[in-house]
Amino acid sequence: AAMGGSQSKRLEVASKTGVLALKEEGLTLVPEKVFTIRTLRTLDLSGNKLIKLPPQVGVLAQLTVLVVDRNRLKALPDEISKAEKLETISANNNQLTCLPNSIGSLSRLKKLTVSYNEMTQLPPMLCQCTNLQLLDLTHNALSSLPSPGFERLTGLVDVRLGYNQLTSLPSGLGSLCRLKDLDLRGNANLVGIPEDLLRDSTLQHIQVDASLLGIDGMLAEMPGRDAYLQRRKARIDKELHGKAGGGDVNFGT
């Protein structure tokens, strides 16, 4: 892709700062010169017309943050796993049908946000990303989570699974010892929530459709519910205590 003067100036600056943002530029290809900046730590290509991310992204050995939101990507390249320092991948609002299996070797990955895509399943290898803290899969077409495997993602704090086609969650999720927030709204055929997830995990805030709520607007009677409600109450008490001086409290379900 040819580069204008301002773009090449920005690349020059990026080689010093380690940060490059080429947003809303109508790009259909990533400019080749981007991959000559081996010191790049943050690359933001959001709001373009990219159909593919070239395999050269793997040469960016210092890259920690990659943002490719609002493009036309159907896949991420296998070579993304060579950018071993990646901590954040944000690829919301694309046309991804899957994630590369190689993503499992990104041992430092903390945030993976891939909402508003077309994924029907997750690669089992994703379950090797045990440092993952935020996983946003909202508005995809997932019918299940990798099982066995998903229970190994013990770093998870915030999991967003809203608006998929999940009918059940795998067992073993009681091992999620850092989990705080789980969004399951918009999965119309979800029949229930595993007892061990409610009883044994650290979950404090779950969001579900009305079909899984009781008449009081709280989570319906189901095995493990009472242990969850105790943790939820403790969190709300703590938030109320912290916000005695005013401010919003988000109760949720």
Automatic annotation (TrEMBL):
Q: Which domain of life is it from?
A: Eukaryota
UniProt cross-references to SMART domains, sorted A to Z: LRR_BAC (SM00364), LRR_TYP (SM00369)
Which is a Pfam family this sequence falls into?
LRR_8
Keywords (alphabetical) are: Leucine-rich repeat, Repeat
Cellular component GO terms, alphabetically?
A: cytoplasm
Xref: SUPFAM superfamilies: L domain-like
Residues of the Disease resistance R13L4/SHOC-2-like LRR domain: 20-114
Recorded hits in InterPro entries, A to Z, give: Leu-rich_rpt, Leu-rich_rpt_typical-subtyp, LRR_dom_sf, LRR_domain-containing, LRR_R13L4/SHOC2-like
Residues that span the membrane, as ranges? none
Xref: PANTHER family? LEUCINE-RICH REPEAT-CONTAINING PROTEIN (PTHR48051:SF54), PTHR48051
Stated name of the protein: Disease resistance R13L4/SHOC-2-like LRR domain-containing protein
